[in-house]
Amino acid sequence: MIIDGKHAVLGRLSSTAAKELLKGNDVVILNAEKVIVTGDPNDIKEKYLKQRRRGSPQHGPFFPKKPELILRRTIRGMMPYKKARGKNALKKLKIHIDFPNEFEKEEIISLTKEIKSDFITLGELSKALGWRPR
Description:
This protein is α/β, with parallel strands linked by helices. Helix content is 39%, strand content 13%. The strands form two sheets. The protein has a four-stranded parallel beta sheet with strand order 4-2-1-5, covered by helices on one side. Strand 1, helix 1 (10-23) and strand 2 (27-30) form a beta-alpha-beta unit.
């Protein structure tokens, strides 16, 4: 299953991907940088910055800065990742920041939804957390 993350809501995308992974299907998510988180952008930034400040740099918990890793951790949170079933399912997940050419001829599922509230993309959120794209 190949999912286009452009303008897809983070929670809905994550739950769909988690369900498919637990069924045993391979999931590829494209355009992870363009996935959106709905709500007030300042509140969302503050929430993620608070998570990053929690604990210690040496002992964790460790929260990611990169958009694809934020998405992966969100999906992981919806699965039994400490059990064998969840670990094996997470191995079947691939996430790309952009849209690689190898997927141009594939059938791509779009989970876009019209959003009437404020939102922030994972790319913008990651930059607020200190991520520097290369």
